[in-house]
Amino acid sequence: MSAVLDASVTLSWCFADQASAATDLLLDHVRDFGAVVPTLWFVEVGSVLLKAERRGRITAPDVGRPLELISALPILVDQAGTGRAWTETLELARAENLTVYDACYLDLAIRRALPLFTQDRELAEAAGRRGVAVSPA
Prior knowledge:
By secondary structure, the chain is mainly α. Helix content is 56%, strand content 10%. The protein has one domain: 5'-nuclease (Rossmann fold).
């Protein structure tokens, strides 16, 4: 079974202080079964890595290592969500008091009937209200 992968879990694989046994298991799951992401996932992950580089938390050469790892994973990109950003996803964000960014992940999980891999508490709570399974729980 596949899952929707958000940036918070992805970034836990890039920084040792954010990793846990649970996120390591999720990495194994994605490696074995794949994941699906909205198009904004690439921008979010890249943005956080660049910010960490600028703050001296990671060096420019070190940014490439996690990106190589992540790029090797069987991750599908959901193109359909982009056209929903100003309609269904915006409404979902309003209803669940989420950012539109976070609502993109939830909308994708709902549409594909997949679990959501996130470490974002508010997103996880909204997913629970919508009947979407969340890991780590």
